[in-house]
Amino acid sequence: MMNGPVPPLPLLLSKPAKKRPLVSLTPLIDVVFILLIFFMLATSFLDWRAIDLSAPVQAAAGPSAEGDALLIEILPNELRFASEPVSLDALTARVAERVADAPEQRVVIKPSTGVPLQRTVAVLDRVKAAGPSDVTLIRGAEPSGE
Question: Considering only CA atoms, which of 110, 102, 50, 138 is closest in space to residue 130?
């Protein structure tokens, strides 16, 4: 047995240990979701492409404006180039031929009533790819020849 007084207990055992405060992840997750929603609403994944169109002068909007230009009519069921029915590929080739002969050749595209906008834009894209520098889109009337 031991003789003498009992040694004192260490101080660490006599005081309760300090607990570190717990960091809650809930506010952090809330902030991440709010940022995710913000960026989902603010971001557009569409492929935006601009179509350069110049508004014709008021005097050029009449029938005389079409006299010296290549007229392309977009009808609901067909395309017409100089009043002849053509396919889209043939139209592109014919416009490219004419533009090669006369680089300043004016091209007028006239969609008729009831033609979907997407079809008009597709024709515009193909005609612009053929190389003309002056492409004009005018408002069409009722389909001619029907």
Answer: 102
Q: What angle do CA 95, 71, 87 make, to 5 degrees?
A: 55
Residue 35 pLDDT level (bands cut at 50, 70, 90) = very high
Q: How far, in Å, CA of 146 to CA of 133, rounded? A: 32
Query: What would the mean pLDDT of 133-146 be, rounded to a whole number?
Result: 69
Q: Decide if 76 contacts 112 (C-beta within 8 A).
A: yes
Q: For residues 18 and 100, what is the distance between their CA atoms, to the nearest angstrom?
A: 87
pTM for this entry:
0.54
For the chain, domains (ranges, CATH) are: 58-137 (3.30.420.270)
Sequence letter at residue 43: T
